[in-house]
Amino acid sequence: MKVGIDKLHFASSHLYVDMADLALARNEAPDKYLIGIGQSKMAVIPPSQDAVTLAANAAAPMLTAADIEAIDLLIVATESGVDNSKAAAIYVAKLLGLQRRVRTIEMKEACYAATAGVKLAQDHVSGHPDKKALVIGTDIARYGLHTPGEPTQGGGAVAMLISAAPQVLALADDSVLLSQDVMDFWRPLYHTTALVDGKYSSNIYIDYFQDVFKTYLAEQQKTLADFKALTFHLPYTKMGLKALRSVLPLATEAQQRALLAHFEAARHLNREVGNLYTGSLYLSLLSLLLTDPTLAADDLIGLFSYGSGAEGEFYTGRLQENYQRGLDSALPQRLARRRRVSVSEYEALFNAQLALTASDQTIALGDDPHRFVLTGQQQEQRQYLDRQH
Ligand code: COA
Fold it and tell me: Secondary structure of 5-47 in the HEC alphabet?
């Protein structure tokens, strides 16, 4: 029986800052961000969106009534949680109108957790093929204004429906994992932005990829040439390119050119949005599937997931015949319709998040067009609005 990703959908902000504008404002050469980091635009998340609304906005458009009836597991992976106790998944389940007999949990391990969610969902559906699981990676990447990490911010959510007989990608049971205590990136409870040793985290990322990928090849008796494309967690798109380049010597020159061409498709949409933390790998998968015209049924796709702290996993899936039917096909057009904001508007929005105090607050919705929005806080409870009800 095949189990895997049946549908894949994305949500982010209607606002972005151009990376050349940001570079000039920070006295950097635009090419440092455009080429050196590999980002063209960065999603600017307004205060009316948080991890919960992004998750609901990602999932709602792809779910049919039959899907909602069949979902009995909802996993929301995030490192941008809105509560230290209550799972974001409970809010998301309510906004999506899921049935009451659903297991709702929030998972955390930096940018890796959505992969843990996918693998748990795969196991769950394998044991209960009549059921479906919804896995959502949702985050707002915040390093702070005027920090080295600033050009690697962004935000958004990727929702994945996991089912038997999936339309998009049938997942194999061939993961290789690595988990060790590393202090490369973390966010203590008293911080709203991440602490990171940027160069160190980039080196650990490559070390982890080398370790799990080469172990995978040895265990499965495969070569790099067996893969149509490799996809990566993309905190910034140059990071994935560095990881890919680190294994290219394993392939012939023609294979290297092909893998690099597929990588360009796999980073195309990430270049337009920035870092998503948990969702980044899966936006890259969506980018590959939406923008690479050379893919075909049964192609083997590799996925490298990395979360600082640190945990890495390499696993694979086979593309299915009608994979395009399960994709968020309008995504490139939606991204093209976003509004460009100035650096000063981006800075104002960055500083206008819901305050971490007990007081009642109201959030101005501005021109946020999304169905689900955060309207404020009343009596220490976050207030969410579904504008279709
Ligand atoms: N034209 C083209 N490239 C340029 C350039 C120019 N004018 N100026 C600099 N660059 C290149 C650099 O050579 C470098 O490329 P390389 O990494 O391939 O050598 C890249 O741009 C970045 O420059 P660097 O000086 O290293 O940037 P930085 O010190 O400001 O930090 C990060 C970059 C990624 C470390 C920083 O943004 C960060 O800490 N990000 C968050 C951490 C992260 O995402 N970690 C990933 C693992 S999860």
Answer: EEEEEEECCCEEEEHHHHHHHCCCCHHHHHHHHCCCEEECCCC
What confidence score (pLDDT) does residue 95 get? 98
Q: How much is the pLDDT for 389?
A: 86
State yes or no: is 79 an active-site residue: yes
- The burial of 3, by beta-carbon neighbours within 10 Å (0-12 exposed, 13-18 middle, 19 or more buried), is given as buried
Residue among 37, 153, 238 to mutate when testing ligand 1 (max atoms within 8 A of CB): 37
Torsion of CA 384, 194, 367, 15, to 10 degrees: -140
If one looks up domain 3-169+328-386 in CATH, what number appears? 3.40.47.10
According to CATH, the topology of domain 171-323 is Peroxisomal Thiolase; Chain A, domain 1 (3.40.47)
pLDDT in tens, 336-370: 999 999 999 999 999 999 999 999 999 999 999 99
Which residue's structure tokens are 């061409």? 261
Is the bond preceding residue 310 a cis peptide, omega within 30 degrees? Answer: yes
Question: Phi then psi for 355, rounded to 5 degrees?
Answer: -70, 145
Q: CA 163 to CA 147: how far, in whole Å?
A: 41
Rg (CA), the chain: 20
Q: Is 205 close to ligand 1, i.e. is its CB under 6 Å away?
A: yes
CB 265 within 8 Å of CB 273 = no
Residues paired with 302 in a beta bridge: 230, 316
Q: For residue 307, which atom of ligand 1 is closest to its CA?
A: 48
Is residue 243 lining ligand 1, measured as CB closer than 6 Å? no
φ and ψ of 165, to 5 deg: 50, 55
- The whole-number pLDDT of residue 263 equals 98
Select from 106, 104, 51 the least CA-distant residue to 374: 51
Domain boundaries, the chain: 3-169+328-386, 171-323
Collect the ranges in the chain with pLDDT lower than 50. none
Domains 3-169+328-386 and 171-323 share a fold: yes
CA distance 173 to 113: 18
